[in-house]
Design goal:
349 residues; NADH_UbQ_OxRdtase_su1_CS; cell membrane
Length: 349
């Protein structure tokens, strides 16, 4: 009787949605490597990849094939189990963060309303922070298990950097939560659809969040854990084959998910700007596709900004990185949170 009570169609819908989100994240991460090389080439007045396929569009497949077929080397002095666990943990945590993101308006399939969100939990933001906090273990475990002094130094850098910038990021988000009155991602989006985007009320909070996102993703100018000129190759120096590929893919997936989360929290998510979707006389499925495309356009813009910054801004020194995090961003985030709290309290009286 218990088995008959299970909604197997609901479970199937969620499994298909999970597969689609994972596939989307992997494809975007794969072609983000191509886009990064093209953006770098444009900034440096070069052509970029143009050999594998038309306009070099098959270059990511060639790079993936190279990583997949390369010899897999595990150093004799390493801790083998942890050496393998590090990149797996980095990849899994990168993919898990997408579970609570609303990707568009609900679709209608065979008379059933299907939300384009894997899990609409009421602590969505808290879930994202919890998973992101686990991501540092992938770096720490990989760097320590390699039994290489440069890898260990890079892993320690990465851990201290993430802990420092997660604090400022969390404080900047509290102001958004005050405006929305909820930790639920879908509710945060709906609040912006009913009123104004949060970027209107929280420009300073968004700037702090964006800077912290760069640091969390180990992107320039905060790529200290991967500083080739200082630490040879960073925390994944001893890695090769697909273990190295997992670390590199995890970084690009984190960058894509960070861009989607920024779009969701500050730019209305899947909300179509300057348009009242309720007045459109179109099918729910077409509206769901358009709203998803709008969210992707916002996210791809931020991905481009991430790449633009990488090829135009020099790397910080580590002391400058910590100084900015603790003595600049944390106080600014606290001031922003207090001012927002006072304004919300006055408006609710």
């Amino acid at each position: 009787m218990y088995l008959l009570a299970i909604d197997w169609i609901f479970i199937l819908e969620k499994l298909i949605l999970i597969a689609l989100v994972v596939t989307l994240s992997m494809i975007v991460a794969m072609y983000a490597t191509y886009a990064e090389r093209k953006v770098a080439a444009f900034i440096q007045d070069r052509i970029g990849p143009n050999r594998a396929g038309p306009f070099g569009l098959l270059q990511p497949l060639a790079d993936g094939g190279k990583l997949f077929f390369k010899e897999e080397i595990i150093p004799l002095a390493s801790s083998k189990f942890l050496f393998i666990l590090g990149p797996i943990l980095a990849m899994v945590t990168a993919l898990l963060t997408s579970a609570v993101i609303p990707w568009g308006t609900p679709a209608v399939i065979s008379g059933r309303t299907v939300p384009l969100q894997v899990a609409d939990i009421n602590i969505g933001i808290l879930y994202v922070f919890g998973v992101v906090s686990l991501g540092v273990y992938g770096i720490m475990i990989g760097g320590w298990a390699s039994n290489n002094k440069f890898s260990l130094l890079a892993a320690i850098r990465g851990a201290s950097q993430m802990i420092s910038y997660e604090l400022a990021m969390g404080l900047s988000l509290i102001a958004v939560l005050m405006l929305a009155g909820s930790l639920q991602m879908s509710q945060i989006v709906q609040t912006q659809i009913d009123g104004n985007w949060n970027i209107v009320y929280q420009p300073l909070g968004f700037l702090i969040f964006f800077i912290c996102a760069l640091a969390e993703c180990n992107r320039t100018p905060f790529d200290l854990p991967e500083a080739e000129s200082e630490l040879n190759f960073g925390y994944h120096q001893e890695y090769s084959s697909m273990k190295l590929g997992f670390y590199l893919f995890a970084e690009y997936i984190n960058m894509f998910i960070s861009a989607v989360i920024m779009s969701t929290l500050y730019f209305g998510g899947y909300d179509i700007p300057f348009v009242n979707e309720a007045s459109w006389n179109i099918s729910p499925n077409l509206l769901a596709f358009i709203s998803f495309a709008v969210l992707m356009a916002k996210a791809f813009f931020f991905v481009f900004v991430f790449m633009w910054i990488r090829w135009t801004v020099p790397r910080f020194r580590f002391d400058q990185l910590m100084h900015l995090g603790w003595k600049r961003l944390v106080p600014l985030a606290l001031i922003n949170m207090i001012v927002t709290a006072v304004i919300v309290l006055m408006l609710n009286k």
